[in-house]
Amino acid sequence: MSLKKIKSALISVFHKTGLEDIVKELHQEGVVIYSTGGTQKFIETLGIPVEAVENLTSYPSILDGRVKTLHPKVFGGLLARREEGHLAQLEEYNIPEIDLVIVDLYPFEETVASTNDENAIIEKIDIGGISLIRAAAKNYKDVVVVPSQSEYPFVLELLKEKSGFTDLADRKKLATHAFGVSSHYDVAIYNYFAAETEARDFKCSVPSSKTLRYGENPHQEASFYGDLAGMFDVRGTKEVSFNNLVDIDAAVNVIAEFKEAAPTFAILKHTNTCGLATRASVFEAWEAALACDNISAFGGILISNVEIDLKTAEAIDKIFYEVLIAPSFSDDAMALLSKKGRRILLTIKNWDLPSRNFKTLLNGVIAQDKDLKIESEKELEVMTNDSPSAEQMEDLLYANICAKHLKSNTIALVKNKQMIGMGCGQTSRVDACIQAIEKAQKFGFDLNGAVMASDAFFPFPDCVELAHKAGIVAVIQPAGSKNDQASVDYCNTNGIPMVKSGTRHFKH
């Protein structure tokens, strides 16, 4: 068990909330407490004796508080192994043993998020605190380390349960958390500096994790590293799964394109949009999105850019779905939808998503800027003799967004701001075009007057020919093929406006 009694403690924290009960418990156990600055004053207001670190070191806090604890009389007491040789040196230099360290680091990440003032950010790089954490964690066989405010409840319970004693397992557990805190902190600082320099190392740290029921398949273990509650209010008795999370991410990225638009509804299955429509009301948008493919919608992910009202909730409640996401739900809609337990309802708090993407690959990681580009009308170039009408241009821009969020190779067909057909994940663009046309026809859509978008250029005129024969009246594509002119010529011959976006939107 290796039980050790805590006889002395060094406390230096930024946030004081939750500290009072711990300090009182330590005092009750007769622990000598050392502290600095604001923490020392806080402890004194509790009427509890506290020794100033500067009295221990015989040095005051200097350099505007940058140097307070960095001294052999502090780190000697932390790093000394409780064995004959080290203890003799402590006695020789009059250094007290320190058995417990409680540190809450300066809020570096919060400061970066709240200001661009470089001086303010730099001053929130903790030096003494991070050094105390690492020293105490290194010497976990003899020292207890509390590296953040989140550990306060555990430590308080530990002190009460064991009357000021800890065993080796307790100390090692806290040391593990301590190195997690210190490594995350260092990564945050590195990434701040790396954003403006030529640094090339890939570093990522997510401090919160959740074990999932399983991964992509039941035989795979999985965890989610992130703060789901920071982005959504979650309702429902069913646990969010690995596949749910992957689809939720895709759904939020799609609707983020329409967050300022008229009521828009999307339905996704296996990360691909199988229904998308914009209408005058959320109910109409739901009906139009469902009509795109009411078969694939079964067990899908549903998302709206506006509040879900009761009328829409009643219609949605008639089908089986996995997750429903919206900025808000009316009270009566939430009451209705909550009755079925095996559904997940997510109220999205914000649309803030990382601007960088990464994934593991081979024996490393690939990282890239997120595809945030979406073309506006003024960026488009008409490639043909005929130009699109205003209505056709609206649908072309809409189709371009649809294609951006479908797996390559992809073709999206749109009519009146409704995706009526899509082909995605095909090895041939011709296959994607055929799939999109057949899908639209399968669900009873009249393709006459619809428009087509492709995620990449047409190396041959075969796709525009297929589209024209099906009734497609306008086309948008990135262009850039040495054989662009063949497709342009076909369109000119048949009076089909074609516009160039100039941006490829592959999605693998």
3D structure, described in words:
The protein is an alpha/beta fold. The protein folds into three domains: 4-194, Methylglyoxal synthase-like domain (Rossmann fold), CATH 3.40.50; 229-348, AICAR transformylase, duplication domain (Cytidine Deaminase, domain 2, 3-Layer(aba) Sandwich); 377-500, 3-Layer(aba) Sandwich (Cytidine Deaminase, domain 2), CATH 3.40.140.20. 38% of the residues lie in helices and 19% in strands. The chain has a six-stranded mixed sheet, with helices on both faces. Strands 18-23-22-21-19-20 form a six-stranded mixed sheet, with helices on both faces. The chain starts with a strand and ends in an 8-residue tail after the last strand. The model has no long low-confidence stretch (mean pLDDT 92).
CATH homology superfamily name of the largest domain? Methylglyoxal synthase-like domain
Q: Could you give a short account of the major beta sheet?
A: 6 strands, mixed
Multimer state: single chain
Instruction: Note the gap between the termini.
Output: 52 Å
User: Structural class of the helices, strands and pairings?
Assistant: alpha/beta
Q: Spans of 5+ residues with little confidence (pLDDT < 50)?
A: none
The pLDDT mean sits at: 92
Give the radius of gyration: 30 Å
Give me the CATH architecture of the largest domain, please.
3-Layer(aba) Sandwich
Overall geometric form: elongated
Treating each run of at least 4 consecutive H or I residues as one helix, how many helices?
Answer: 19
Adjacency order of strands in the biggest sheet? 10-15-14-13-11-12
Give the C-level CATH assignment of the largest domain: Alpha Beta
- Number of structurally distinct domains: 3
- Say how many strands there are: 23
The CATH topology of the largest domain is: Rossmann fold
The fraction of residues in strands falls at 15-25%
